[in-house]
Amino acid sequence: MKIGFIGLGHMGQGIARNILKAGHEVTVYNRSRGPAEQLAGDGARLAASADEACRGDVVVSMLADDAALDQVLIESGVIARLPASAIHICMATISIAMARRLAELHVRHGSAYVSAPCFGRPAAAAAAQLTIVAAGPAQAMARVRPLLNALGPNIFEFGGDAYLANVVKLSGNFFIASVIETMGEAFALTRKHGISPDAYFEFFRSIFDCRPVRAYGEIITQGKYEPAGFRLLLGLKDLNLVLAAGGEVNVALPVASLVRDHMLSGIARGCGEMDWSVIAELSAQDAGLTART
Amino acid sequence: MKIGFIGLGHMGQGIARNILKAGHEVTVYNRSRGPAEQLAGDGARLAASADEACRGDVVVSMLADDAALDQVLIESGVIARLPASAIHICMATISIAMARRLAELHVRHGSAYVSAPCFGRPAAAAAAQLTIVAAGPAQAMARVRPLLNALGPNIFEFGGDAYLANVVKLSGNFFIASVIETMGEAFALTRKHGISPDAYFEFFRSIFDCRPVRAYGEIITQGKYEPAGFRLLLGLKDLNLVLAAGGEVNVALPVASLVRDHMLSGIARGCGEMDWSVIAELSAQDAGLTART
Amino acid sequence: MKIGFIGLGHMGQGIARNILKAGHEVTVYNRSRGPAEQLAGDGARLAASADEACRGDVVVSMLADDAALDQVLIESGVIARLPASAIHICMATISIAMARRLAELHVRHGSAYVSAPCFGRPAAAAAAQLTIVAAGPAQAMARVRPLLNALGPNIFEFGGDAYLANVVKLSGNFFIASVIETMGEAFALTRKHGISPDAYFEFFRSIFDCRPVRAYGEIITQGKYEPAGFRLLLGLKDLNLVLAAGGEVNVALPVASLVRDHMLSGIARGCGEMDWSVIAELSAQDAGLTART
Amino acid sequence: MKIGFIGLGHMGQGIARNILKAGHEVTVYNRSRGPAEQLAGDGARLAASADEACRGDVVVSMLADDAALDQVLIESGVIARLPASAIHICMATISIAMARRLAELHVRHGSAYVSAPCFGRPAAAAAAQLTIVAAGPAQAMARVRPLLNALGPNIFEFGGDAYLANVVKLSGNFFIASVIETMGEAFALTRKHGISPDAYFEFFRSIFDCRPVRAYGEIITQGKYEPAGFRLLLGLKDLNLVLAAGGEVNVALPVASLVRDHMLSGIARGCGEMDWSVIAELSAQDAGLTART
C-alpha cells in the first residue's frame, strides 16, 4: 500500500521503519526535517508538506498531542483534502473529544478514520513489539489490520466507534500511573522503616511481575528519573485526558484525581522534565526521606 | 524437627500438611476440633491445648488476627511457658505493633520469634506455592529456613527485626488492594462508555499480566463477588494495619486512605461478607451502572 | 450612565433592576424575551439584539457560562463592534481562560474589560446585597465602581488583571463546596451514631456560624434538595473551573478533586438537577443511611 | 458543691478557676505540682494524690489524652474507689472508645459519667466562653448542668450516651481541620496567581466569617505557625480519633483521610511542634511557593 506517515518522533520513527520493512511504499513528513531524512536512508520518500504525504491509501499520524494534530492536519485543511478512499490512522494518545471530532470530520469528507493508540516505549516500537488498541469502521479496520500487524503482535479491537480505542488507551495509562503512585507509596513506607529499596524491589518484582512494575520499579529503586523515558509533563497531560474521559460520562476516578494532584505538585516542585515515575520520589520526600542518589 | 502448629483455618491446614510431608513430627491445635482431626488422618498428633502443641522445637501459628493471637498465645501464658530453645513462627497477617510485641515477649522469655507472613490463597498453601516474607534473629532464621522452604519456592528475608516482614507483607496487600481499586475504576470508565468488560479484560490481562490482575480481573469481569476468596471485612482490617504501619513512621499513603474509605462504604452498603474486590462493583454503582449479573 | 445589560436569568434580573434604581438608563437584552419584558415594566428599554444593548457607556453581562458568553458576545462579533470608550463588565462565573481571552479581545478592539463576579443568591441580588470581587484596568474600574456599589455593600478589588477576580470567585465557590462536603460527612458520621440532624445542626450553626453553613446546613438537615438553589450540574461546572485554575499554575487542590469526584457520582446517580448540597445525601447513602424524607 | 479537678494544663487552669469563682469548693490535683500551686492562690485546696481530689460530689478531669486518663484515673484504681454518688465529668478530647469504657466503668462502680468536651482556646476557657457539648445519664446531667453553665454560655446536650458528646466534639474538630486545609489550598491557588494573601484574606474573612476562618486565616496570612496554639501532633491525634469514630460505624470521611495524610506529611517534614494550621504552608510548598517569612 501507499502509506503517508506524519510525525517522526521517537515512537514515529520506529513505527515508520517497520511499515517500510513490511514492504509498503512510505512517504514521510515531519515538521523538523532531520528525522525525515533519517527515514529516507531506509527507503522512505520525503514529502515537503503534510499534503504531499497524504496522497496514498493510508495516512498514519503520530503527532504529540491534540494541539499538534489540530495544527498540522485539521486547521491546515489536510484532512479536508484527503482522497475519498483514504484512511487516516491516528496512533497518538489524544483526547476522546479529538478522536470523535476526527471521526466526524473524516465522515464529512468521505475518508475514514481509525484510532490505533499503542502501548510500548520507543524500543518496543522499533522492535515491532507494540500492543495496539484499535477501533473504527469495519471496512477501514479490515484494510488496515495487516498494516497494524506489522507493528506488534497484539492488537485489541473495540468496534466501530474509533474513540473507544482512545478510552481504552487512556484507561491503560491510568493503570500504569496508579501502579507508579502505589509503588512510590509502598517504597516510601518500607524505606522509612529501614528496608533497603533493592531488597524490597527484588520481592516486589517477583510477586507482582508485570511490565509497569518491572520498568518503573527499576527506576524508583535507583532513584534515577533522568533522562526521562516519558516526561512528567506528558504524564499530566494524559491524566487530564483520563479525567476528561471520565467526566464525559460522569464516572469519578478518585485514584486518577489523586495521581493528577501529585503530578501537579511534582511539576510545581521542578520535576516536569523528569520521568513521570518521579512522583515516587515525591512520596519519599513527603515522608521526610532524602533523595537516594 | 518437632513442630507445633496452631490455627488450622483454610491457610493453616495446607501449610501444616506440607510440614508433615516434609517429614517433621507435627502436633496440631485448633480452637474448634474438626480441622485438627482432619490433620490427624495425615499423621499429625492432636494436642488438647495450645500448651501441649508447644513443647517441640518450633511453633507455627496461623491465627486470624491480633486479637486471636493475643487470646490463644499471649494472655493464656503459652508464650511465657515455651521451652527456652523454641522458635515461634507467626505466619498470619498481624499488625506491626503486635509483631514487635511478640519479638520483645520472646526475648524476655528466652525463646525466639520469627515473622513469616505469606502471599497466596489456600490453594497455593496446599500446593506449597506460597511466597513468604520472613524476618527474625539470624540464628532462628537459619534453623527455620528449611521448614519455610517446604512451604513455597520463594522466600524473601528482611533481616533481624521480625516486624519488618510484616511491613513488607502489609505493603504487598496494599498494592493488591490498589490494583483492585484501580481496575474497578478503569472497568467502570470503559463500561460506562459501552465497552464490554470481557473484551476489556482480554486486553487488560494481556498487557498488565500479574497475579492480582488475573485473579481479581476475572471476578470483576464476571461480577461474581460471592463466595468470597478474601472477605471485604478482612480487607478493611488489613488496610487499617497498612495505615497504622504508615502512621508509626509518619508516612502518608493516600491511595491506601482512599481504598479504606471505599471499603468502609462497601461494608456500610452491605458487602462486608463479599470478596474484597467488590469495591469494583461500588465504583460501577457510583458511576450509575447497574450490577452485571 | 447608559448601561446595556445582557443575560436576565434569576441573578441578572435583580442586578439589572438595581442598576435602574440607581438612576441609570438601562437597555436590556435576553435571548428569550419574557424576562426582558418584565424589566421593561421597571423602566428598562428593550433591545432586539445584543448589539442594540451595546451602544452605551457600559455593558454588563450575566450569561450562564463560557459557551453562552462566547456565542452571544464573541462569535457574534458584538464585542468587536463595541464603541471604543465602552467598558464590558462580566459578572458571571466564567473560566479564567475566558476572562483572559475577553481582556485581550477588548484591548484589541479599544474597549475595556472588567471581571466582577459576585457571591449571593438571587434574593441577595434583588436586595443589592451581593459581595462582588472585581479586577480590571484602573481607569475602567474607577468609572464602574459607582455602578458596582449599587449592587452590594462589599466590593473587593484585585488589581489590573481582570481574570484575578475570577480566580478569587472560583476559590470562594471551592470553599463553599468544601464546607458542604465536610458538613455532609460530619452529618453522616453523627447520624450513623444515632444523633438527630436537627440537634446536631443547632450545635453546628452556633459554633461555625457563617453563610454557607447557615444556608446549606438547613437544606442538609431537612434533606430537601429540591427545588435547587444552585444545581449540582452547575456546581460541577464550577469545580471543573476551579481545578483548571489550579492546573494553569500547577497548584494541586486535593479537596477540590475529591468534591468534583463526589459531584460526578451524584450526577451519575441521577441528582444533577438537585441542589449541589445533595452531595451530603450521597455521603449519607455511602454510609448506609437512608434518605431522611 | 465539692469539686475535684484533675489536669491543670492551659485549658484546665482556666476552667478550674471559673469553678472556684462560681463558689464551689475545689480540690485540685496535677501530676506536676506547679500549676496546682497557682490555683491554691485562688482558693483551691491542693490534693497530694488523684484519690484525694476525688472525695467530693463531682470530679472534673482535663487530661491530655486517652493514655494520660488511663494512667491517672483507671489503672490507678481511682475511678474504682470513687464515692457511689460521685459524678465524673471528662472535658478532654478523648476517643469514643475511651468514653464508652469510662461510662461502663462508672456504671460498674456505682458512680456516674458525663462527657463534656469543649471548644475554645485557653483564653476562652479563662473567660468562661467555652462552647460545651455534653452527654450522660439524665440525673447526672441535671446535677452538673449548673457547673457547666459557669464555664461558657453555650451548652449543647446529646442525650444519655456519654460518648455521643465525644462524637460531636470530634466532628467539630474535623470541620475545623477541613476549613484549615481548604483555606490552605485556596491561599496557595490565589498566591500562585499573584494575589496578595493580605488582600485575599480581607475578602475571605468578610464573606466566610466564622471562628476557624478568623483564627486560622490570620495565622496563614502571616505564615506565623510558631508558637503553636494547637500543635500539629495533637491535630493528628484528633484526626485519628475522628477516623476511628467513623470506622466504628463504617462511615467513610474522605476529607478527614486527606487531612490526616497531609498532617502525617507535615510531621515527617519537621512541623509536628508547629500550629496545626501549618498544613496550609505545606500546600504552598507543594505548589512550589516559598515560605512567606
What is the CA-based Rg of chain A, rounded?
20 Å
Strand content of chain A: 5-15%
**At the third CATH level, what is the topology name of the largest domain in chain A?**
Rossmann fold
Q: Characterize the quaternary organization of these chains.
A: homotetramer
**CATH hierarchy: architecture of the largest domain in chain A:** 3-Layer(aba) Sandwich
Q: Could you spell the SSE succession of chain A in H and E letters?
A: EHEHEEHEHEEHEHEHHHHHH
Tally of individual domains of chain A: 2
Distance between the termini of chain A: 51 Å
Descriptive account of the structure:
The structure is a homotetramer of 293-residue chains. Chain A is an alpha/beta fold. The first copy, chain A, folds into two domains: 160 residues, Rossmann fold; 120 residues, N-(1-d-carboxylethyl)-l-norvaline Dehydrogenase, domain 2, CATH 1.10.1040.10. Helix content of chain A is 53%, strand content 12%. Chain A has twelve helices and nine strands. In chain A, the strands form two sheets. Chain A has a six-stranded parallel β-sheet with strand order 3-2-1-4-5-6. Chain A has a three-stranded mixed β-sheet with strand order 7-8-9. In chain A, helix 7 packs across helix 10, helix 8 runs antiparallel to helix 9 and helix 10 packs antiparallel against helix 11. The radius of gyration of chain A is 20 Å and the shape is elongated. The termini of chain A are far apart. At the B-D interface, helix 10 and helix 11 of B face helix 10 and helix 11 of D.
